[in-house]
Amino acid sequence: MSKITLEIPEALMNQLQNKSDSIQDILLKALEDYLKREESDITKTQTWNLCGTLEVSNPEPEFIVKQSGTEFSTNYAENSDLTLY
Length: 85
What we know:
The protein has 4 helices and 2 strands; from the N terminus they run αααββα. The protein is α+β, with helices and mostly antiparallel strands and 85 residues long. The model has no long low-confidence stretch (mean pLDDT 82).
């Protein structure tokens, strides 16, 4: 295990005084959580799984940006504020 020196503001130290976990355990957990967030693979998210699975059956002509045969590409996402607000 590596050792580090860390300066912690007094206000945070005062808040840590009454915690049952050690400062080391708290910092290790925070580092683990940080690394999980930073290393997350976008292709494993629910949003990624939804991409390409939704279809607009009758797109409004003003939102069609590309048409290839019977397939349409729309820019609804780029104009979502118009719909939401």
